[in-house]
From TrEMBL, chain A:
This is AP complex subunit sigma. It comes from Rhynchospora pubera. GO terms for molecular function: clathrin adaptor activity. Residues 1-139 form the AP complex mu/sigma subunit domain. It is found in: Cell membrane; Membrane, Coated pit.
Automatic annotation (TrEMBL), chain B:
The keyword Protein transport applies. InterPro entries: AP3_complex_dsu, ARM-like, ARM-type_fold, Clathrin/coatomer_adapt-like_N. It is found in: Endomembrane system; Golgi apparatus. Adaptor protein complex 3 (AP-3) is a heterotetramer. This is AP-3 complex subunit delta. It comes from Rhynchospora pubera. It comes from the Eukaryota.
Amino acid sequence: MIRFILLQNRQGKTRLAKYYVPLEDSEKHKVEYEVHRLVVNRDPKFTNFVEFRTHKVIYRRYAGLFFSMCVDITDNELAYLECIHLFVEILDHFFSNVCELDLVFNFHKVYLILDEFILAGELQETSKRAIIERMGELENIYFRAMRFAIVIFTPWLKDLAFFSW
Amino acid sequence: MASPPPLPSSTSVLSSASSLADSLFQRSLDDLIKSVRSDPSSEPSIIARSLSEIRREIRSSDPLTKSIALQKLTYLSSLHFHSMSFAAFHTLELLPSPSPQTKRLAYLAASLSFHPSTTELLPLATHQLHKDLTSLSTSSSSSSFPFLPSLPLHLLSLASSADLSSHLAPDLVPLLSRSSPLQPKAVAATYRVLSLCPSTVPVLFKPLVDCLSSDNPLTVSAAVGAFCELSAPPNDPAPYLPLAPEIYRVLVNSRSNWTLIKALKIFSRLVPLEPRLGTRIVEPLSKFLRESQAKSLVLECIKTVVSCLPTHTEAMRLAIDKIKELLSSDDDPNLRYLGLQTLGMLAPGHLWALEESREVVAQSLTDPDRSICHEALRVMMAMTLQENSIESCTLLVRQAAKSDPEFANEILDSVLTSCSKDFYELVVDFDWYVSLLGEMARIVHCTKGDEISRQLVDIGLRVRDARPELVRVARELLIDPSLLGNHFLYNVLSAAAWISGEYVEFSKDPMELVEALLQPRTSLLPTSARAVYIQSVLKVLTFSCNSHIDESSSLVNDTVIARMLSLIEMTVGPLAESEEAEVEDRVRNLLGVVRLVANIKDLSGDKDKDGMIYEVVRVMDALFSDEMGPVSANAQKKVSVPEDLDLKDNLADLSEFISDNDAAMSRSNPSILFYPQSCNASEEVEVGPTSVAESTSLKEHRKRHGLYYLSTDKETTEPELTEDYPRVNETLPLSNGDTTRRVKVTKLRPTVVKLDEGEDLATSSSLSTKVEAMKDDPLSGAIKDVLLGKKGNGASSSFDASSSSQGKGKDKVKGKEIKSKKGEEGESKDRHKGRRKHKHRKEPAPPVSVAQETPVIQDFLL
């Protein structure tokens, strides 16, 4: 089972953090710091698995971003390595050529994708196409809803503007 | 939200105006991110300002303003570590919002920030979660937003408390039993609810089991994953045995590697409980091993075969071939790492396979990647046996000399622990091992001085035949002045000094030894080591005098003795004023003896073998000639407590006499205390003539408690008699038989003195208490009980906790019946609702729980 997923850049700034076990804030901070220290100095030719406390971290580096997953010691390393790659492919497809800034500014969308992908620390969907299709649907819903809210909001704004003027 | 808000009335103009300003000029999340990124140096102040804005905005009555504030807060909290606990209530307020966007925001914020144990408001969310979970079946708006229940499912799986879980469990059932895109999500959430709140098992377990045979492959995958987690190590997999047929079907039919991996994991837990399952799964497993292109699946198959199908030779062959393939993939360090890992799993049973890959393993020790080195070291130690211990350990120590400090010490540590295990069982040639210890101490980064010194002394005490080599190694260590600067080696040097003093009779050149012990750089040593050095000088001196009198050694003559005396006088003399009591004490003893010998010599002239000099030297030599042996860790227990001894007396008054130093010293080396013993001896020396009485009292003590001393009779050193050399061993023929089991080696292994198996008391007792602790663990058996009860009651049983607990009782009885008449298939099928059609599983009566699992909740925590 996945304990947490972290996206960090080389400086150790967290770009995405999702925990599937309840941790206190201070503990999260510590974990992120430790994981960053663990993976940042590893040579690209090294293995992608590192032992972390009583678990292990499977990580993969894409340009300046480290995608790290903490899983149980008995879990299948290669499967989770593929899982990280799949997640990156989905992100890449969704943002068409994803870069760090996409993740920074589309914070909520990244969570949306991740939630489609993994629930309760378990992989939900292994088909890239299925997730992308589902994301299209969901985006549609949220996008439409957003416009709806603005339509309601605008006449009220006009009224108020008129009133105060 | 749909209707415009009422115009502000005169009473609330002020508050509305501020809220209006907030909504008009509110910064969006993008604005916030941009401002944070624009100036990294003033980031803290920008964030602090934003936080205070957010605190104001989040109290706004306008849901949009509120939601944007919450969105910003979520961002800051998850990426900049600012607590959002103050917003818990506002998050709850937004959960019922009709807008999917706002709802999603609120759920995200809740799932990121709510913590089951610290969020007190969590129970307030129960109703809203219930409403959202059931929205599909009740509300008419379901068509517009079919994914609504997935939001509460996420929250439920992340931040749920046991209370919340038990309230919402019934709402999961319809989601679980209807095939929809939400079904897999519901399965995953169900697993979390089950593990959090075992009392929901009667409600949720059957729908979850049914998901295993769903048409939707995603649901099956999720269900297998859920069972894989439920049966994971801290939990007892036994209750899931009845599910084996379902999972077998998944194993055969599923096309998804992910599902197959999870199914294999479940089987690897079930097969040890029911070996007959092994024969069933070996066939699909071999097929995967041969045909599958997916490395992850192959890896899982290897692990399963190696760990639970060691008797299936053909599958094992396949697995070993695959491991070799992994090992030989030079371009992918991941595969090599996993190859080493699986190779290590073969260890006790298939050593030949390890031996075949020895070269690859040895090569991996030099790998730049630490993870691979670790794994290689583990494999190396696993394949080290008596026959190849010399080869392996020499290679490892040579490797340690070349490695970086941290890894070097890890290598040394594992060599030291595995070689000293079970009274040096791995070591055949002690001369080699002792010189290896010396080599280890000389490795530049060595920090294992404590353990090396312990083993040096221990071998000295236990292995008589190794003493000459020990003295040689000790001499080399002592002579080298460069070692004196390394504070990690002080203990090793101190042990070396003690060895060369205690076994001085094997020394080739006593004068050289005294020079080494008194070299100028010894001033760098700490007090405790220094004291041992000086004490050893005393021993060497008395030995030299004695052999001079006997004329037994050609190396010792008048001039040597005279030089020795003057050297001692010169170097030790100034230390008589030393501030350290330990040193000062010993120095004075030594000087006393030196002056005594010198005086007598002057008085009686050269070559006088009669009279005083003869007596004094003999007495002193007799003091040190008594051999010290190892002391059993439970020797103390064997001494019956004298009746007049008051053990309950409070000794707190004494604490002021005992410094922390004393306590620490006696704790650091509980098994061999050469230091205090030599301390006693030195006191005896100083008394001079009266020490004869002391010596006789020692003899008396030996006579009375002979059991705890080693016999010093010379004839017992003869090889033929070594079998009964330590008298105590008579009770333990087993350990002796053990050591002589492998006799392929040309050189006979010297006897290692073992007092009794109780010497390992510390480790063995801790082990047994561990086992006890396992048994006594607070029972979270609820989940298992209910599972068992559920199974036993069959399909018709009601989802009622009380009835299921009765069912458990019934099941136990039934299980016993079945055990007595094994192989009665009919009944077992009956009990399992006729769903199980596989013949391979005759026994569905899982062993009645003996070992209970620990509470599941703790195990989720890191």
